[in-house]
Write a structure and sequence with these properties.
Structural class: alpha/beta
Largest sheet: 21 strands, parallel
Helix content: 25-40%
Strand content: 15-25%
Number of strands: 44
Number of domains: 6
Radius of gyration: 32 Å
CATH topology of the largest domain: Rossmann fold
Length: 1193
């Protein structure tokens, strides 16, 4: 009874806490803000922070325990839908014509998806009246869906509503793997080319007068596009039940992957004696049926996180736990985000809007599974598992699942009721020395030097994080420095070796050995961000510029410097690479703790879930305050008194106003970040921030009506106003004559007044990719007077003239330009001074939707800002000569989008002088491009596209051949990647002899969605040149319905000898992949995946003379054979019997998958299926179309 009362009390307490959290969230923000929408970049670094930092002691200061940012505390998901991706409410959106399918097929399909498989599916249950506009709720549902099924029935195109749905689906789900077309008793060719009822319906829409021609064309484009995707044809199935099952299986494997491979972030792992001992104990506990919760404890920096990651990997490899999921916990846990991470790794969508509801869904998912290992890393004070959705002990035991947690404190293991508490000890003296010597990379030639190094190693307390930091700091130093370091560490040693002061002194020593004050400042800046946060290097750059760290440098030189510093900090083990995110770094939580202690003049409460402004002692003389990533509603009513404050970071709070007097006493402030707050007014005291150098106002959700105050900030150098709801670039910005960087990306600017940009004569970087693109035009209707929609309506209209493009060319210091241009006519015919832009991203395109598709407001700027990109819907002959000299000659990345005048890319090469081009992408439709390159007209005998590395062709609807005629020697000699997709008129062979011999360095070939292509390669002549395809390592052949053979005619035996990965999907006329002669030389093949090739009879075809020759695929590791309905043997000839021995070996095969190969009954099949039953379930062959199911024959 007493135990029951205790449990009841706990339940009530948890419920009350959860309800309080829910009520607070209702007030503050209805839904959690995704990392993608809240990813910020704005902080700045102090040089002067070093003076105080160097004199700081090891004592703890007012700074709190570091707390990670709410969306950064968790490990990335390994499921198809990453935890960093925007939150999606539905798994699947069903698009269908109600009159055709609602009451029968669609109802059955919806029931199987929603009720039977638990896949959250949106199905609209209303029939729209003819002519009625599409519901906004429908469009929103599409945006909130991860996947779409489009039921293309006979009368689908008669509904404008359906066509609008389809257009929106294609817009939101640009990845073809997110759309599944179902051809419901219609022919795919009728859909693609709008024949039959589809053509009649589109014609009727065009003639009705209710829809303009642009809209009808968008509908046609959407139908053409979706018909090219891999889908299902109802006529291929005997019953509708079979069809429904096939669709549910296909969709379920994408949105509900049953098992995924556990991916670890730690690449280099060397288990020392202490680690091996702890790992062995953990593995034993995982095998013990009586143990459900296991705790690993040890001092910070001893390597707990790395160890449990590898335990998880080992447990999956040994099939103890097919599924391993992991979440990192912060000192103040964010339950919502923990739930999201665990759900993502389980392939589960959480649609509930309360923590309680999400916990219920997560618990149900875990208890319905089997053998799931849940790792909770870095628990600080204990957490109620049921509040997350982790089942109770008895429930976990019933589903054979366990919890593995790590913590710094043993008593946390007791509070979490761990049945096994395992200590991870520090390294032994010998292991410490082994790691230290490896990191120091010093031979220690004399005995004196060796002994001193051993002494220093011994002073590091056996902590890997300290050993690495000290070893790298002293590695190249002379003996005298080693003596000083040894004495310093010896003096600082506490009575107990595991005291955290050891860590502090070791990392402080590494910090002190940094070579410059700028390096030290950049290191300390990183502790202003939340724990486990991916810190953008561009943020560090801009904060450093704002603080004055790079006063003598231009921005590009400063960017080079910061990248050099970051690399040196990583080499010193003071920073880490971000997890798969380019342009970012991370700071180990232990090192961040030390950095906060070093920086006595920093007040850090980043990512602490604060709802109110904290108490800050003004007498401490803080120079930096970081309150980013909290839930603070407002600043204090009284003014902030911090006379020495240089950096104030308030981004990602929910404040909607700033009191008038807040900034009156911040006259030394140099860096201010208010991004992603909801402020509607800048306080009048804003104009007193006369020392401000860096200002971020990105994504402020409300209109900032007094934006003109910015004109008073005369020292401003960095101004970022991404995603602001401004209709007009404020004229007052023209007064900021010291401005070096201006970013107006993705704002709804319609007017850029003249003589604003040209006044910014010190501008080095300009990012102005926004709605505005009509340079030099009159402001339409002259209706915009104010900066915002509301101001314009209130103040009336007057005539405006937009800035001309000449204003850019007049900026002599401009090095980076990113801009949209609607028409080549916006460009001046000539310029007085030719610009020297080091980097540019210019789009010249009439279609606003194309320009919009190039914007990704959540993505960071290029990490080194060195791109040279050009997007065109026109040809080179429409561009002025100066533009060719300044831009196209330097262009490295060129895209043609809907360029209907494009005839021959060789002509473009010569007219644009594209000698520097590395990346070429042609995206259709195109009316005239029947041959990509033609040399029928004489061309100079010099190489063309000599530096091109990647060539992508996508949806070029009239393309019939890639090359006509002979190209000069050394043309295309650097091409590494060729990708051709959705070019329906390409026929015969993709790569013929005239092009094949020009591709000696081709490494990857992808060929998809072409109805007429018969061969991939064809070579005319007696012998293939020895250099042909010698570097080819990867081929992907997908949805090639007419492909007969990979190679036309006799192929050289060694032609594919270096291929490592081969994926073949939906090539229904292929009868085999290779002859035995070629198979004998597949020396490097590692991954082979063959799927849905309905005519395939054998993978390797032998003649009667060679059928008994033994074939060995010596490096094959992964093999998948799926839905091969005619496959009888892996290796054999036409006369081979099913039970004849197959002379085939796979000595290194690790993972195999055989599914729906109903007449495949040869000896090879028995071997493969046997292996399937023994191996862990992995994502096979790097196939990214879908995560495979665990269904076995």
């Amino acid at each position: 009874m007493e135990l029951y009362s205790v449990e009841m009390a706990l339940a009530i307490a948890v419920g009350f806490a959860t309800m309080t959290h829910w009520l607070a969230s209702m007030v503050e923000n209805r839904e959690p803000v995704s990392n993608g929408n809240r990813e910020l970049a704005d902080v700045d670094s102090p040089a002067s922070l070093l003076s105080s930092a160097e004199s700081s002691s090891a004592s703890m200061v007012e700074n709190p325990e570091p707390v990670p940012e709410e969306n950064q505390e968790l490990v990335p998901s390994t499921s198809l839908v990453s935890s960093a991706a925007p939150w999606q409410k539905y798994d699947v959106f069903l698009s269908f014509r109600g009159a055709d399918t609602r009451k029968g097929f669609v109802s059955h399909l919806h029931h199987e998806l929603q009720t039977v498989r638990g896949i959250q599916t949106f199905k609209d249950d209303k029939d729209l009246e003819t002519g009625a506009p599409i519901s906004s709720s429908l469009l929103k549902a599409i945006e909130e869906s991860n996947f779409a099924i489009v039921v293309l029935s006979e009368n689908y195109a008669q509904s404008a509503w359906c066509l609008e749905e389809l257009t929106k689906i294609c817009q939101c789900m640009k990845d073809k793997n997110r759309i599944l077309p179902l051809f419901y008793y219609v022919q795919p060719s009728d859909v693609r080319h709008q024949n039959g009822t589809f053509g009649d319906a589109l014609t009727k829409h065009g003639n009705s007068g209710r829809h303009n021609s642009e809209k009808v064309q968008r509908w046609r484009d959407a139908l053409h596009r979706v018909a090219g995707f891999s889908g299902r044809n109802a006529q291929d199935f005997q019953t509708e039940r079979d069809l429904v099952e096939a669709i549910v299986d296909a969709v379920g494997s994408k949105v509900r992957p049953i098992e995924t491979e556990f991916i670890i972030s730690s690449i280099h792992f060397e288990p020392f004696e202490a680690t091996r001992e702890a790992m062995d104990k953990v593995m034993e506990a995982l095998k013990d049926e009586n143990i459900t919760i296991i705790g690993v404890y040890g001092i910070g920096g001893v390597g707990k996180s790395t160890m449990v990651e590898h335990v998880g990997l080992e447990a999956q490899k040994k099939r103890l736990f097919p599924q391993v999921i992991l979440a990192r916990i912060s000192p103040e846990p964010n339950v919502w985000n923990i739930q999201g991470t665990l759900a993502d790794m389980l392939g589960l969508k959480l649609v509930d809007e309360t923590v309680i509801g999400r916990a219920r869904t997560l618990r149900k998912k875990i208890t319905s599974g089997d053998r799931i290992l849940i790792i909770l890393d870095n628990i600080w004070e204990g957490i109620e598992l049921t509040s997350i959705g982790i089942p109770r002990f008895n429930e976990l035991k019933r589903c054979n699942s366990k919890v593995l947690l790590t913590t710094r404190k043993r008593d946390v293991c007791y509070r979490m009721q761990c049945q096994a508490s395992i200590r991870l000890n520090t390294l032994t003296e010998q292991d410490s020395w082994k790691l230290f010597a490896k990191e120091a990379r010093n031979s220690f030639k004399t005995s004196t030097f060796y002994n001193k190094a051993r002494q220093v190693s011994g002073e590091c307390g056996g902590l890997p994080v300290a050993l690495k930091a000290v070893a790298k700091a002293l590695g190249d130093k002379e003996l005298d420095e080693w003596n000083k370091a040894a004495e310093r560490l010896k003096v600082s040693q506490p009575p107990h070796p595991e005291d955290e002061k050891v860590v502090f002194e070791c990392i402080k020593l590494s910090y002190d050995y940094l070579k410059s004050d700028v390096s030290k400042s950049c290191f300390l800046l990183c502790c202003l961000f939340p724990e486990d946060y991916d810190i953008k290097i561009e943020d560090l750059l801009k904060y450093g510029i704002g603080k004055g760290l790079f006063e003598e440098s231009n921005m590009q030189n400063a960017r080079d410097t910061i990248h050099t510093i970051i690399e040196s900090l990583k080499d010193s083990s003071l920073l880490l690479d971000a997890k798969g995110i380019k342009g970012c770094v991370r700071m180990h939580d232990v090192i961040r703790d030390v950095a906060i202690q070093i920086s006595l003049q920093f007040f850090v409460r980043a990512g602490c879930e604060l709802q109110y402004w904290p108490r800050i002692d003004a007498g401490k003389g803080y120079i930096a305050i970081s309150l980013m990533k909290n839930k603070i509603c407002t600043l204090p009513a009284e003014h902030l008194v911090f006379p020495k404050l240089h950096i104030l970071l308030l981004q990602s709070n929910i404040m909607n106003n700033i009191p008038v007097s807040s900034f009156q006493r911040l006259k030394a402030l140099r860096v201010l970040d208010l991004s992603y707050t909801a402020i509607s007014l800048l306080p009048t005291s804003f104009n007193l921030l006369t020392s401000l150098h860096t200002l971020y106002l990105d994504g402020c959700l409300s209109r900032i009506s007094n934006i003109s105050l910015l004109g008073r900030l005369k020292k401003l150098e960095i101004l970022s106003m991404r995603e602001l709801p401004l209709l007009k670039l404020p004229k007052e910005i023209g007064q900021l004559t010291t401005l070096r960087m201006l970013d107006f990306t993705s704002v709804c600017v319609d007017i850029v007044p003249s003589k604003v940009i040209s006044n910014l004569n010190k501008l080095e970087e300009l990012y102005i990719q926004c709605d505005f693109a009509d340079w030099g035009s009159k402001a339409e209707g002259s209706e915009v007077k104010g900066n915002t929609v509301e101001e314009s309506e209130a103040e009336g209209a007057r005539e405006e003239t937009n800035a001309s493009f000449d204003e850019f060319t007049s900026l002599l210091h401009l090095q980076i330009l990113k801009v949209f241009i609607s028409d080549p006519k916006c460009l001046p015919t000539d310029v007085e001074v030719k610009s020297n832009w080091k980097s540019f991203d210019i789009c010249i395109c009439r279609d606003p939707s194309i320009r919009e598709s190039l914007l990704d407001p959540s993505s960071p700027l290029d990490s080194k800002a060195d791109s040279k990109a050009l997007t065109l819907d026109t040809t080179m002959d429409t561009l002025p000569k100066w533009f060719t000299d300044v831009v196209t000659k330097k262009t490295e990345k060129l895209q043609y989008r809907n360029c209907r005048g494009l005839v021959n890319v060789l002509k473009e090469y010569y007219q644009g002088t594209l000698h520097s081009l590395k990346y070429l992408h042609v995206i259709g439709p195109s009316d005239k491009l029947e041959q990509l390159m033609t040399t029928i007209t004489p061309i100079p005998n010099e190489p063309v596209f000599e530096n091109l590395e990647e060539l992508h062709l996508d949806g070029v609807n009239c393309l019939k051949e890639l090359c006509v005629g002979e190209l000069p020697n050394q043309s295309l000699c650097k091409l590494r990647l060729l990708e051709v997709r959705g070019c329906p008129e390409l026929m015969n062979a993709l790569l013929q002899s005239n092009l094949l011999k020009r591709l000696p360095n081709l490494e990857k070939l992808s060929c998809e969605e072409m109805d007429k292509l018969e061969y991939v390669f064809s070579y005319e002549g007696s012998e293939v040149e020895q250099s042909t395809l010698t570097e080819l390592i990867e081929m992907r052949l997908e949805n090639l319905g007419n492909l007969i053979k990979i190679w036309n005619g006799p192929a050289p035996c060694e032609i594919f000898c270096h291929v490592k990965t081969l994926v073949v999907f939906e090539c229904n006329k292929l009868k085999n992949l290779f002859t035995s002669d070629i198979a004998h030389h597949l020396h490097d093949l590692e991954d082979l995946s063959v799927e849905a090739c309905l005519g395939l009879e054998r993978v390797i075809e032998a003649s009667e003379e060679t059928v008994n020759d033994k074939i060995v695929l010596p490096k094959l590791k992964k093999l998948a054979l799926k839905k091969l309905l005619k496959l009888t043997r892996f290796y054999g000839s036409t006369g081979s019997a099913t039970n004849d021995e197959e002379c085939i070996e796979f000595p290194l095969l690790e993972h195999s998958h055989v599914e729906r190969c109903h007449i495949f009954n040869s000896p090879a099949k028995d071997m493969l299926v046997s292996m399937m039953n023994k191996q862990p379930v992995l994502i096979p062959m790097q196939v990214q179309r879908e995560v495979r199911e665990t269904h076995q024959l």
